[in-house]
């Protein structure tokens, strides 16, 4: 086999479909976010405004977070030295897991190197704990959940996105004595829509199923202490297992699950993705714990309120210009484009001509024909930056002769 030719063919296919992904060289500078420095291919530099980051609240540069990380770094050094089983755990890991358990009102939490690994490792391990388990998965669950469920050596059922009636049909068709788990999300980040948490919990009660809720795009962002949509809606006690990230609203790095002490102990003891992975550096754990603790306070609520306000303002202004925004009431602002080449071209022009950085969202992240630009306002953006973004979008929509409509895409 000509391996080099095979690689050329695979990469050429992405170029032909208009969905080849290009890294943009940007440098975040402490205290300046959401502004950053873009290094062009020719080596020249200019200041840009980041509109597609998942550091939703700007916590990645908050002084409290940085101070905690500096303190831990000076005290312990750079790395953790290995897995939790071999190199031992630290006070920083224990404090972080205590903050997470408290955040979700659970007995325990377990930290992984990412939320992707947390989903994959946990979901793929459950068959070892519950022989005969059937997993019911929302059709639009994140790739990490899909991967974990694929590797799960047991029965799998896919229910139509947010379709509680279809989920009921699937549950009712299976053996009533079989163990069951429903895996879904609180916010589906590409469309920005919410999962029907209460209705799914009702079905879980009726069919004696466990609930597994991915709150990756909601932790820190919703609820009086940032516990997510389940906390906001008073439903956290009805969720058996939470998955979340430390790398989005909390502004640091890592992922976790939160559940009963027995469940966490079992996953800790059986999941290869935890057992054989080097643990988070202590400084990262310290920064994440500090961020979670701060976002539980009144200051955290002020940041959440301001972020939600800016998201509403941006949606209102784009809708007023006839932009096909996808508005489901969350903090995410997707603008439908519908073609990968057009989506990439708009992204390139926003960056080169207006200093606005937003990456195109193409297949396989979203289905073909639903390509979009996905904006994430933060409380550290300014009203002037929102105005500049709106004017740039208006100019490009006219320049490219794109359709305008008051309808939601």
TrEMBL record:
<keyword id="KW-0808">Transferase</keyword>
<dbReference type="InterPro" id="IPR015422">
    <property type="entry name" value="PyrdxlP-dep_Trfase_small"/>
</dbReference>
<protein>
    <recommendedName>
        <fullName>5-aminolevulinate synthase</fullName>
        <ecNumber>2.3.1.37</ecNumber>
    </recommendedName>
</protein>
<dbReference type="InterPro" id="IPR015421">
    <property type="entry name" value="PyrdxlP-dep_Trfase_major"/>
</dbReference>
<comment type="similarity">
    <text>Belongs to the class-II pyridoxal-phosphate-dependent aminotransferase family.</text>
</comment>
<dbReference type="InterPro" id="IPR001917">
    <property type="entry name" value="Aminotrans_II_pyridoxalP_BS"/>
</dbReference>
<keyword id="KW-0663">Pyridoxal phosphate</keyword>
<dbReference type="GO" id="GO:0006782">
    <property type="term" value="P:protoporphyrinogen IX biosynthetic process"/>
</dbReference>
<dbReference type="GO" id="GO:0030170">
    <property type="term" value="F:pyridoxal phosphate binding"/>
</dbReference>
<dbReference type="GO" id="GO:0003870">
    <property type="term" value="F:5-aminolevulinate synthase activity"/>
</dbReference>
<feature type="domain" description="Aminotransferase class I/classII large">
    <location>
        <begin position="48"/>
        <end position="392"/>
    </location>
</feature>
<dbReference type="InterPro" id="IPR050087">
    <property type="entry name" value="AON_synthase_class-II"/>
</dbReference>
<dbReference type="InterPro" id="IPR015424">
    <property type="entry name" value="PyrdxlP-dep_Trfase"/>
</dbReference>
<keyword id="KW-0012">Acyltransferase</keyword>
<dbReference type="InterPro" id="IPR010961">
    <property type="entry name" value="4pyrrol_synth_NH2levulA_synth"/>
</dbReference>
<comment type="pathway">
    <text>Porphyrin-containing compound metabolism; protoporphyrin-IX biosynthesis; 5-aminolevulinate from glycine: step 1/1.</text>
</comment>
<dbReference type="InterPro" id="IPR004839">
    <property type="entry name" value="Aminotransferase_I/II_large"/>
</dbReference>
<keyword id="KW-0350">Heme biosynthesis</keyword>
<dbReference type="Pfam" id="PF00155">
    <property type="entry name" value="Aminotran_1_2"/>
</dbReference>
<comment type="subunit">
    <text>Homodimer.</text>
</comment>
